[in-house]
From TrEMBL:
Pfam families referenced in this protein's UniProt entry, alphabetically: Glycos_transf_2 (PF00535)
Family matches, as InterPro entries: Glyco_trans_2-like, Nucleotide-diphossugar_trans
GO MF annotation terms: hexosyltransferase activity
Organism: Limosilactobacillus reuteri
Protein name as it appears in the record: Glycosyltransferase 2-like domain-containing protein
Length: 326
């Protein structure tokens, strides 16, 4: 009888004492048990390692790797270097898996899928469901953790370091390296939103990082010789830029900061759409209603009417039954 393939689950952790035990148990309690859990502690100083050590004493599938604080990109890279599995999965230390996460993925892997993309659910620290995200080809390019990958998808790929935006530049390349992609429509990953999340802290550098992330994405595409449908790629990049533009406009405190962020993102977006995607639009949208929203928004922002532009975006989102970008 053939041995089931080993899956390596990579969990970066930093000062995660409040949530990490639940995350660990959600991995160890998987119905697919042929796994190793690599926890890369990124210099925690408040009891996280003690919780990991306690869990490690009762289950030898846990391997703890300790680093000085370098960020989650460096932690994930270390996990990839140390992984023994034929397949790779990721989980954040404040999230958790459904108990059948790995089993559902391996069923599709047995059918020849090199990358499996799952539906996921966002929730807050009060366990209130915010919304579910269905897997689609466009959505499959985004986060690293709602997927199961054949290890070869990550050959010659690494996460950027010293950046808050770490998934966008590499996940599309890993997904694009797969010969066959499978989709799981039920919810198997639970993603926590809470106030101290690093991805929710905003300053003017968010706009600069958004542009740098796009540049790194194109560099990785060239390095790995991965190509995408141009329409899908245009929508993916423009949705990403729009999301960060919205965040900057919503959370930056001064008009000068908002103007600077707007100029950084829209100047890059306009040049990219003209030179790469053969479009005159500043931010390409997937529908006429969203394109109208983008055009009106950028016109108002360009004129300095930031609050009015945000009001327009949120009003149109409600009108067309969609949430504003978070």
């Amino acid at each position: 009888m053939m041995t089931a393939p080993l899956i390596t689950v990579i969990m970066p952790a930093y000062n995660s004492v409040q949530y990490i035990e639940k995350a660990i148990k959600s991995v160890l309690n998987q119905t697919y048990s042929q796994l190793e859990l690599l926890i890369i502690d990124d210099g925690s100083n408040e009891g996280t390692r003690e919780i990991i050590n306690q869990q490690q004493q009762s289950d030898d599938r846990i391997r703890l790797i300790c680093l000085d604080n370098q960020g989650s990109g460096a932690a994930r890279n270390e996990g990839l270097r140390r992984a023994n599995g034929e397949y790779i999965a990721f989980i954040d230390a404040d999230d958790y898996y459904d108990q059948n996460f790995l089993l559902q993925g391996m069923r599709l892997a047995e059918q020849g899928c090199d990358c499996i993309v799952y539906n996921y659910q966002r929730f807050n620290s009060d366990q209130e469901t915010l919304y579910r995200v269905e897997p689609t080809p466009l959505k499959s390019y985004s986060a690293v953790w709602n997927k199961l990958y054949r290890k070869e998808c990550w050959d010659n790929l690494s996460f950027p370091q010293n950046m808050k935006i770490e998934d966008f530049e590499v996940v599309p390349i890993a997904v694009g390296s797969a010969k066959k992609i499978g989709f799981v429509s039920d919810t198997f990953y639970y993603y926590r939103i809470h106030q101290i999340s690093i991805t929710h802290q905003t300053d003017i550098n968010e706009a600069r990082e958004a542009v740098k992330a796009c540049q790194l994405l194109f560099e990785n595409m060239k390095k790995k010789a991965v190509s995408f449908n141009q329409d899908d790629l245009a929508l993916y990049i423009n949705s990403f830029l729009y999301s960060h533009l919205y965040t900057c406009m919503s959370r930056l405190s001064t008009k000068d900061e908002k103007k600077a962020a707007f100029n950084i993102i829209t100047t890059y977006s306009k040049a990219l759409n003209k030179q790469v995607f053969n479009s005159a639009k500043t931010l390409v949208a997937p529908s006429k209603s969203k394109q109208l929203r983008n055009d009106l928004m950028t016109t108002l922002f360009n004129a300095g009417y930031f609050n009015l532009g945000l009001l327009l975006v949120n009003s149109m989102a409600k009108l067309f039954g969609k949430r504003g970008v978070k």
